[in-house]
Every structure is written in structure tokens, then in C-alpha cells.
């Protein structure tokens, strides 16, 4: 047991975190680096970045880079398909044989669910992109979203930024008039992208596309909303509805034991968009009240890194004993209770 070291890797489109955990459940080291979504980077670069971060964590823990870890849990954005997941793992074993003896791999949402329980749960990620996943206690899954910036990033920072830009374009074209003045949003867009005309925005979407840069507009829009701009506030209310829609979609497929927990359904909320909960709340509650029969659910956020959940996922799948206290990993920030 003393020589068992498990790595956990949490990787999104923007950043990646690695932790190393010993057989007593202690975190030995952490490392942080750039995004590792293989659909955006390619598998070769994804592996290189992860291997470099794991080696950094080994150095911090004073472990030899030449001795493989017992296991690594990879909880990565873009890892929803088993075939491509195993292709990614095979590459690690072939190109980086000293990194780890074994691997467990899943989506970023799977690792986050593992932070809450090994009996399943719900995670709603709203960061640069978005994805919501349910894992039942029998291992069955349901997913809503997670299809990327073209097919589905509802409620994400990218989705919020895109809606703001699209509202301006539609209003400027007289195609669909905005319900509120667009001047504050448009000035914020111009400042963020350093442009003077909507024509100058086109290369950012069609020539030099950078999803994380577009998504970064969301933070500036949240400032506008908090300062009272009505259009910005509406965009965040709509994002709250979208996140409520995603969560209720997977809850409809949840097993009864997930409903019977104290506080109802436990939903782990991950990503920077959730930091604007005060702006999302009205739309979220409206969706729940008007479109669902859900009686109670608790929204919680992590008090640790999702990389810890990735390590737990590896331990569970590979049958490696690893002590843990789940309640130390999260904190409730809102409880929805349906009014009778």
C-alpha cells in the first residue's frame, strides 16, 4: 500500500489540473497547465501536455519520473466515446511508458461526479463550454449537451458570449430587434475584441477562431449585468434557463435512489459561469417552476479540485483501495424547493 500513488487529471478546453494521491488519501502534489481537449488540440498534443504536467507533479512530490504511477484517472473534456478514449490511453502506454501502469478514462463530468459519490450523481459543467451528465448507481448514464461550440454549449461562457454577439448582429440588421438597448453590450464587445466594426468580428469566428477568447467576453458581460444593463441581465437569465433545462433533462432519467438523498437531487455545478449564480438564479428557478415537476434539488460546488474525483474514478474502476470523505469535497450554495 505504501507505494501506491494514484494520479488524477482534470482537463478542460482552457486549463488542466493534476493531483497525486497516496494510499492514505493524502494529496502529495498538484500541477496546473493549459487545456487538454483532444478535439481542439489533437491527441498527440493532448498527451504531451498531460505527460508534462504529471512529470511536474512527480517532481513536486519528489518522485522519480522513471517510475510509473500505480494508476492515473483521466477526466477530460471531449472524452465521451469509448473508442477514442482507448486510443488516447494506448498512446500514453506506447509513447510514455514511465508515466503510469494503468489508466481509467472518462469525460470531465464523470470525474466530477466521482468527487461526490461512487454511487452516481449529476454534474453540470458551465465553463468555457458546457455539459451535463447523470450517472446512476447501476452505471447507466444520460447526457445533455457537451457537443461543442457548434452543436451545443448552452449556458456556457461561450454560449453567453455568442448570444450577446448574435443579439447585436440581429438588432443591427433589423432582423430581430433586441428587447433592450444594445449600446452597453456592443461597447463591451468592441473593447474585448479590439474592433471598431461588426465586420471586424468575422475573423474571430471564421479565420482565427479561439473559443476561450470568445468565451472570455462572458466575464465582462457579467460586470455589465451587475451594473444594471438590462440586456446583459436578460442574457444571463436565459443562460440560467438553459442550465435548468439541461439538469432537468437528465433528472428525468435518474434512478430513485438519487432522488431520495437529503436535499433531493444533488447537482455538482462546475465552471466559472456558476460564479454568476445571482444573475442565473431567476431564469433557473423560472424554468424549474414552469417546466418540471422536480420537488427538491441541491446545487453544490466543489471545495477541492475535480482532479481528485479523477483519482477516485481510477481507484474505483481499477479496484484500488483509497480512503475518502466525500462531504469534505463540496458545499451547498442553493437548494431549490418547489412551492406547493
Automatic annotation (TrEMBL):
Enzyme Commission designation: 2.7.1.59
Organism from which the protein derives: Aquatica leii
EC class: transferase
Protein name as annotated: N-acetyl-D-glucosamine kinase
All residue ranges annotated as the ATPase BadF/BadG/BcrA/BcrD type domain in the record: 8-313
CDD domains: ASKHA_NBD_NAGK_meta
InterPro entries the UniProt entry points to: ATPase_BadF (IPR002731), ATPase_NBD (IPR043129), NAGK-like (IPR039758)
PANTHER family noted in UniProt: BADF TYPE ATPASE DOMAIN-CONTAINING PROTEIN, N-ACETYL-D-GLUCOSAMINE KINASE
Coiled coil: none
Amino acid at each position: 500500500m505504501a507505494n501506491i500513488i494514484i494520479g488524477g487529471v482534470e482537463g478542460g478546453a482552457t486549463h488542466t489540473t493534476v493531483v497525486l494521491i497516496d494510499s492514505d488519501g493524502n494529496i502529495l502534489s498538484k500541477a496546473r497547465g493549459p487545456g487538454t481537449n483532444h478535439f481542439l488540440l489533437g491527441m498527440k498534443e493532448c498527451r504531451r501536455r498531460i505527460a508534462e504536467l504529471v512529470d511536474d507533479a512527480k517532481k513536486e512530490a519528489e518522485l522519480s519520473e522513471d517510475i510509473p504511477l500505480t494508476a492515473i484517472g483521466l477526466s477530460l473534456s471531449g472524452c465521451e466515446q469509448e473508442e477514442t478514449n482507448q486510443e488516447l490511453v494506448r498512446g500514453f502506454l506506447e509513447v510514455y511508458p514511465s508515466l503510469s501502469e494503468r489508466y481509467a478514462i472518462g469525460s470531465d463530468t464523470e470525474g466530477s461526479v466521482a468527487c461526490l459519490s461512487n454511487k452516481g450523481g449529476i454534474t453540470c459543467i458551465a465553463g468555457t463550454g458546457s455539459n451535463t451528465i447523470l450517472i446512476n448507481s447501476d452505471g447507466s448514464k444520460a447526457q445533455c449537451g457537451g457537443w461543442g461550440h457548434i452543436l451545443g454549449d448552452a449556458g456556457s461562457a461561450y454560449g453567453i458570449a455568442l448570444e450577446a454577439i448574435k443579439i447585436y448582429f440581429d438588432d443591427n440588421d433589423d432582423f430581430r430587434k433586441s428587447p433592450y438597448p444594445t449600446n452597453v453590450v456592443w461597447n463591451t464587445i468592441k473593447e474585448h475584441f479590439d474592433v471598431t466594426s461588426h465586420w471586424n468580428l468575422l475573423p474571430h469566428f471564421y479565420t482565427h477562431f479561439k473559443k476561450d477568447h470568445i468565451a472570455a467576453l462572458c466575464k465582462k458581460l457579467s460586470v455589465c449585468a451587475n451594473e444594471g444593463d438590462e440586456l446583459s441581465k436578460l442574457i444571463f437569465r436565459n443562460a440560467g434557463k438553459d442550465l435548468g433545462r439541461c439538469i432537468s433533462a437528465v433528472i428525468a432519467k435518474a434512478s430513485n435512489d438519487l432522488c431520495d438523498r437529503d436535499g433531493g437531487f444533488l447537482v455538482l455545478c462546475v465552471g466559472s459561469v456558476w460564479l454568476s449564480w445571482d444573475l442565473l438564479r431567476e431564469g433557473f428557478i423560472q424554468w424549474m417552476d414552469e417546466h418540471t415537476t422536480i420537488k427538491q434539488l441541491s446545487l453544490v460546488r466543489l471545495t477541492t479540485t475535480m482532479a481528485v474525483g479523477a483519482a477516485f474514478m481510477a481507484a474505483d474502476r481499477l479496484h484500488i483501495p483509497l480512503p475518502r470523505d466525500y462531504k469534505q469535497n463540496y458545499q451547498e450554495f442553493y437548494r431549490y424547493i418547489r412551492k406547493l
